[in-house]
Design a protein that fits this description.
- It is a single chain.
- The protein has about 100 residues and is mainly alpha-helical.
- The protein is about 30% helix and about 0% strand.
- The termini are far apart.
């Protein structure tokens, strides 16, 4: 075999195998052994949810919404249409800042 062919057939697959094995071992260590040994410190999460006590009280529920505004009619206007006919209703919403 030539050097180039030996490099492609032997060295590169072996290098990829070693790199993959190192990644797999690192992930397994992180998954099963944990990331750090300083788990006694309060700054590290424990994964525990603290128990909370909630007291139920009887009360009334109010749902109110007050919006100021006015409704006014505007004058009728002519409307150009591509076909003949009569327009019965035209709705237009106009917001007015107050």
């Amino acid at each position: 075999m030539t050097q180039r062919r030996a490099f492609r057939r032997i060295f590169l697959p072996t290098a990829w195998l070693i790199i993959g094995a190192l990644i797999a071992v690192s992930l397994a260590k992180l998954a099963f052994a944990g990331g750090s040994a300083a788990s006694d410190d309060d700054l590290y999460p424990t994964g525990e949810i603290p128990a909370e006590t909630v007291f139920a009280e009887k009360a009334t529920v109010e749902n109110k919404l007050s919006i100021g505004g006015s409704i006014k009619l505007t004058e009728s206007k002519e409307l150009n249409a591509p076909v003949d006919g009569v327009v019965n209703w035209l709705f237009r919403i106009e917001s007015v800042a107050t």
